[in-house]
Amino acid sequence: MRFDFTTFGEGVIRLSVPAGQRIETTNKFDVDVSGTEANVASALARLGWRTGWVSALPDTPPGRRVEQCFRPHGVDLSGLIWRMEGRVSTYYVEYSKPPRPTTIYYDRKGSCFANLTPGDIDWDYLLDTRHLHVSGLAVPLSSGSREIISLALARAKERGITTSFDINYRHLLWSAEEARETLVPLLQGVDLLFLAKRDAAILFGCDGEVSEVVAGLSHLTGAGNIVVSLASEGVAGWDGTSIEYQKACDVEIIDRIGAGDAMISGVLHGWFGGSLFKGLRYGAMMAALAMSQNSEAVVTNKEELERLLATDPVDIFR
């Protein structure tokens, strides 16, 4: 088996302005790269796992910019599909302080990724893995990406490959009603389901205590394990029998975007090692590391992660 982890999703150019500036009047943008599925692959590669990413990019400087973001982290990119025509998606971030929230604006229609069809995918590459991960962020982008995700999950199940699904709901991309109707069939029997507690209520009507949320989601999806993000309170995990909680780590936030992807990578790191509940500890720390760094792809390694979990925080390590 070639990989421990493979995933399918879009790579995006991220253009942002700092707090105190507005997009409509700014003279410059900070340029970075985003990709929720590739962020997870990058973090897991940093933690020593063999990871591969399937996506589509234009053979242009912006497309190569996306590629060059993820390559240094150790993700295998031979599954990328290069197009001579088309565009890379972008999104704009307007960081802010209260009373205005940080706001994101998407420009994702008609990208090379959105134009993919199942016939474009190298299925032998995507499914040559121990584990397949997909995200609800890719589902509403096009009928093609939706069909690919559906087929990928079905074929992974046929081959005995474990699967995880990150709900990752974005109301700017589709309505809660459409998301629920589309996602529930896709989620049937996934091995590991990730979602925010607020999304469990908004999309699936699963509200109340975490135990009630988990019970509702288990009944609705048949997921074997469920991880519920509790925002600033931490994360909870259910392994099919019991629930454990992990509080959030103390962090001075530099950039909040990408923390959820980092959390997922930490949970999977523990789960691959045989313990979902230890994965909650890894996940909380990876989320904190993500928020303490600029950019979305977390720069760390297994040794640093273990050391941070084993010691009290210090200002200087030497």
Question: Can you describe this structure?
Answer:
- The protein has helices at residues 36-46, 61-70, 123-126, 143-158, 176-187, 197-204, 210-221, 259-272, 276-291, 302-310, and strands spanning 5-8, 12-17, 30-34, 51-54, 56-58, 81-83, 89-94, 103-107, 131-135, 162-166, 192-196, 225-229, 234-238, 243-247.
- It is an alpha/beta fold.
- It has one domain: UDP-N-acetylmuramoyl-L-alanine:D-glutamate ligase (3-Layer(aba) Sandwich), CATH 3.40.1190.20.
- The strands form 3 sheets. An 8-stranded mixed beta sheet has the order 4-1-9-10-11-12-13-14, sandwiched between helices. A 4-stranded mixed beta sheet has the order 3-2-7-8. The protein has a two-stranded parallel sheet with strand order 5-6.
- The N and C termini lie far apart (39 Å).
- Mean pLDDT is 94; it is low at 314-318.
Residue windows where pLDDT falls under 50 for at least 5 positions? 314-318
> Structural class of the helices, strands and pairings?
alpha/beta
Helical residue percent band:
25-40%
Care to count the β-strands?
Answer: 14
CATH superfamily: Ribokinase
| Alpha carbon gap, first and last residue | 39 Å
CATH class value: Alpha Beta
Computed Rg: 19 Å
CATH architecture: 3-Layer(aba) Sandwich
> Could you name the CATH topology?
UDP-N-acetylmuramoyl-L-alanine:D-glutamate ligase
Classify the beta-strand content into a percent band: 15-25%
Number of domains: 1
Mean pLDDT: 94
User: How is the biggest beta sheet arranged?
Assistant: 8 strands, mixed
Tertiary shape: globular
User: Helix and strand string, N-terminal first?
Assistant: EEEHEEHEEEHEHEHEHHEEEHHH
Strand arrangement within the widest β-sheet reads 4-1-9-10-11-12-13-14
Helical stretch tally:
10
